[in-house]
Each structure stands twice: as C-alpha cells, then as structure tokens.
Amino acid sequence: MDVYFIIFAIICFVGVKIYNPGEFNKDYLSPKSTLSVKGIFVMLVFFTHFISYHKLTGEFDSFANWYHGNIKQTIVTMFLFYSGYGVMEAIKNKGKDYVRKLPVKALKLWIHFAIAVCMFLIVKLSFGNTYSATKIIKTFLTTRTIGNSNWYVGAMICMYLITFLAFIFFTFSKKTYRYLPAIILTLLCLAYILLCVHVRMSRFWVNTIICYPIGIWYSIFKERIEKIIFKNDIVYWLGVVLSVVPFCIFYMMKSTMRWYMVCMVFFLFSAVLVTMKVNFGNGFLNFLGKHVFSIYILQRLPFIILDEIGFLEEHPVHSFVISFVITAFMAHVFDILMEKTDSLLFGKKTTPGQLKN
Questions:
Q1: pLDDT-based confidence at residue 352 (cuts at 50, 70, 90)
Q2: How far apart are CA 304 and CA 129, in angstroms?
Q3: What is the DSSP string of 59-89?
Q4: Alpha-helix runs per DSSP H in 201-291
Q5: If both were cysteines, with which of 58, 164, 294, 319 could 102 make a disulfide (CB 3.0 to 4.6 Å apart)?
Q6: Are 145 and 297 in contact (CB under 8 A)?
Q7: Which pLDDT tens digit goes with each residue over 255-269?
C-alpha cells in the first residue's frame, strides 16, 4: 500500500503552484481552488476505508499502517470547514432566500443517501445478509449502518437544519446582523454535540463537527483575517507555528474527546494556511473533487463485494485499483442520475457529486 501513497503524493504535486516569498494564493477559498483540495481529502478517505477492510502485513505497508492508526478524522475537517464557509458566503450573497432553501438542501442530501443505501441493501441481501426492519429504518435515518458510510451525511443534514433555525429569523442588510445568528448557530452546534454524547452516538458524529461553525465564522471575519495573514511572510509563518505546534501538543492528548476536538481545529487551521501558499490543481484531483459525495458514499460497495468473494483477502494490491476504478465509474454515473432525480423532484438543475453550500 505504501507504493500507492507515493503514487498519490506524486499526483498531488502535478500542476501544483507554490507561491514565492511575499506572495499568497488569494483565491485559496474559490470553488476552483477548493475542488482539488477536496479531491485530495476524499482520496485519503478512500485509503482509510480500504485499509479498514484488510489487515496490512506486507513489507511495504509500514506507512499505510501508521497512516491508518494516526490520521483518523483529520481527513474530514476540510469538508466541514468548506461547507460552513460556503453556506455563510451564500447567505451573505443571497440572504434569506438562500436560508429558506436549506431544508430542501438537507432533503436532497438525504434522498441521495437513501438511494445509495438501497444499493447497499441489494448487495448485502444478495450475499445472504439479513437485517431487522428496525435496523433498516435506522440505516435510512443515518443512525445505523449496513456497511455504508453514514455519520457525515447525518451530521451535515443536522448542520443544514441548524443553520436554517439560526438564520431564518434575521435579515442581512448590515454585517452586524450576521453575528447574532452565527452565535446562535454555534450554540446549537454545542447542543448537537451534547445530545450526541448523551444518546451515545459514535464519536465520529462529534469530534470534528466544530469545523462547520468555524467555517461560518471564517466567512464573517475573512477580510480581517486575510489583512493580517497576507501582511507579510513573517506574520504568515508565525500563523503556521501557532497552528502546527498546538496541533502537535493536543495530538498527544487526543485520547480525550475534548482535546481531540481542539486538535482537529488546529489541524484545520494548519491545512487552510497551507492552501494560502500552495495551490493544488490537476485533472485527476478535480475529478475527485467534483464527485466528493458519490465517491464517499459508494466506495464501500466494491470493498464489500471483493471482500465477500474472497478476492480482497487474496489480492489486496489489485483490489485497491479495482475498487477505485469501480468507485470512480459508479460515482460518475450516480451523479448523472442524481442530477436528473433532482431536476425531476425539485425542478432545478443542480451540480452533481458535491455537498453543495
């Protein structure tokens, strides 16, 4: 597996632009720039999920085992941050008209998820697995799983609805009006965390979700932040140090939930700072970025099939390539079908494959 990580690292640096001293990537949060970053992280999600299906004991698996044991939830922090940032940018530009559409966005996301769950159910049942009606219902509600990924979808649906509740009662003719709903949203996110802990949901539902409201606040203070960070390289590298060092410190305390969450926040800050100096971008990463949701939700299907027939255990190296090719093909087709489904149900053309802002 280590070879695949090396190949992917090389691909990531194809077409990369590293800015000179005193220069910055001022489009680091533009849709074009974030597309490739999303592509990098969704591929890392693919690596993580694949490794979880097969114990790596090969001579060239040492880095893969380290990665699987240590990276964990860092790979989803940017998705949550970009989602929060994008939602707030849309609210700033479109106001209450956009806020009113957030429940519809949540519904669209759930419909796409439910269709994917049907695919998992068909595959699982075809291999002789059986499930109670209660578990199937809970799977469609994102609180249980039959082999599919679930928590991120459930968490994002909650975030869309929380954002709707926080912003629907306000107008946005003045910048100051954004602070109060953003505070309410943050409090609702904290309530979400406490509720998840109380009902004993998986830690995945909780330990990175704070990155979503951070994205909201970043959008609000973006101009002020950039005015400071883009002042010169000294300030920039000071920001890097003040992000990376705390990340390393809190990483050593990551066994405790609260410190793990703090650790994820500083990883997020570090990653955002990297994108201010490094602009990733090539066709492969852009393809992955355009199909983030479908790659995320469908990738376990080929893992399950290859695992059930024993091929994954016998040929893990080949299984990785086969799984990726199948996932990429399914993701492309799935997004075309979801675009048509959205047009049929909601009457408007949507951009497929992404958890849109």
A1: very low
A2: 12
A3: TT-HHHHHHHHHTGGGGGHHHHHHHHHHHHH
A4: 211-229, 233-251, 257-277, 283-290
A5: 164
A6: no
A7: 888 899 999 999 999
